[in-house]
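Narrative of activities, Objective 1.

The group set out to show that a structural description can be obtained from nothing but a protein's sequence at a throughput compatible with the screening campaign. Below is one input-output pair from the validation batch, recorded exactly as produced.
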Amino acid sequence: LATNGTLIDDALAEEIKAHGVKRVSISFDGADAATHDAFRGLPGSFDAAVRGFQALRRVGLPVQINTTVAKHNEAQLEAILQLAKDLDAVGLHLFLLVPVGCGVEIAEEQMINAQQYERVLNWLYDKEQSEPQLQLKATCAPHYFRVMRQRRAEERRRGVQHDLPASHHRQLHGHPHGQMHAATKGCLAGTGVCFVSHRGEVFPCGYLPVEAGNVRRQHFGDIWQGSALFAELRNPDLLGGKCGACQFKNLCSGCRARAYGTVGDYMAEEPFCAYDPETRTVHIE
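Output recorded for this entry:
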């Protein structure tokens, strides 16, 4: 269950648990009330979300924090991580903004650039090493898989040995606690996941509004197996720009929704990646 948490009290938390919900995510857009409430445009929403979070924990439900990383909170990641630990969260999932839907309205003002994304993803890699008790995950950030490979290779060259980050282990073996957190590569749109709307439309993911079919007119299996759109997305050789030339394209593929939202072409290069496949270097300004 994904929620802003503001209406959850003890009674509702008990009801949520009784209906069989196994895990809840609550969105926090900042580490404190001033940041969160300003972004939400609703005074008191941070404190209400905290109360909802605590009510869910009192009935024994696991709760994670979801945070969309943007300009207003990029500098608060350490504090948001501490908030997750203080609230006894089971995980902190960072979402990288995709400029589609309501994200279009805030993209120009709030999207961080490719270099900032690179710093965030490297920060996440470091925290996966130092915070093994907390499930840390990057969503809509397929280039994190490239970052992991590069960091592991660098560590091997320096003779550094430690356990694989949890996300790297999920990539290799799936998640030990079930399919909810399984990940096999970067962008899964149309390859490992899809989204079915209330009107029956089938999209590659919830952020890529290009229709592959409609379950009101077709069998889902026929759409999943036979969609020309899905066939394109499953062929990394069709990727354009830097993504098409990248040695990590089978692992990462770039965010297809971000490419579509930025330039209108879902097979174009990931617009917020700092890696140059020609020189095999990361451009950090």
